[in-house]
Amino acid sequence: MSTSKLSLLTRLNGAMDLSSSQRRITECLQANMHEAAMWGVEELANESQTCVATVVRFAKKLGYSGYLEMRKALVSSAKKHYQRGDQLLDAPAQAAATLVEVARRDIRNIELLVQAVDEDLLQGAARLLKSSRMRLIIGDGVSALMARQLAYLLINTGIPAMEGNPADFASQVGILDSRDLLIAISITPYTRETLDAAAYARKRSIPVLAFSDGDHSPLAKIASLALPIPGKNLLFSHSLAAFGVLAHALATTIAREDPKSSLKKLHEVERVARPKFTDD
Fold first, then answer.
1. 32-38 average pLDDT score
2. How far apart are the first and last CA of the chain?
């Protein structure tokens, strides 16, 4: 395919022989694809800790005539992203019909998940989760909700897990070592703190299990193992349905290997939590 027909994201993901400053620009754009559409060349240089001349040379390396043409590609990508909101105009007028449409889309997300995750991938993730000494789960925004759900399920199967605090990812990852596991969750637009924490973990030989929205994701490229979480829906957010299925499948896979031990730990969790609940 002609370079001129390639999308900006494809060019970024396929860029080879990059200098350290060019890699910083790549990572900056991947993490801020939609915000960067509003940046000038100076702002991109500042955000990526490079200089204007390096940004211009980088744009040419990707096959653009210069920064202005690359920025047009950024704007085009942002428009496609935000035009997803137009589908709200196509949502059914009746609430019950909307329920059916939301369910239909999530069924499709789950079908895509089942097609993408095979036995080896699921078992590989389960092994990472079981064999680690400590498990830190990080995610921001909607990804933080996923992190909480996964932590809850793992704890209830006897696998201790700790939720990360978005304001303090760096110091939390800093206490891990190669015996531990960082579980990172991020979807477009990717969170810089999550990407930086995952990259830092890999540099320190800490395994990273990633949940993201595809192999194109910068988080998936950093990870030791990456699992996809399809989530297209009628709203601007990422649906949680496919992730919920995947998280339950992982927890069940782990619990099934030693059901007696898992049930014993679950009963212990229930015993500790019982005073919080009413008797009604």
1. 77
2. 66
| Strand order across the beta sheet in which 181-185 lies | 162-163, 135-138, 181-185, 208-212, 225-228
Find the range with the poorest average confidence among 133-137, 157-161, 268-272.
Answer: 268-272
The residue type found at 73 is: A
- Domains of the chain are 6-83 (1.10.10.10), 95-276 (3.40.50.10490)
Instruction: Please list the residues that pair with 163 across neighbouring strands.
Output: 137
pLDDT at 202 over 70: yes
Beta-bridge partner residues of 226: 210
Dist CA 270 CA 259 (whole Å): 16
Instruction: Reply yes or no on whether the pLDDT at 229 is more than 70.
Output: yes
Looking at residue 84, what is its pLDDT? 54
Report d(CA 74, CA 52) in Å as an integer: 17
Q: Report strand pairing: 208-212 vs 162-163.
A: unpaired
How many helices, marked H, and strands, marked E, lie in the chain?
13, 5
Q: Is 207 helix (H, G, I), strand (E, B) or coil?
A: coil
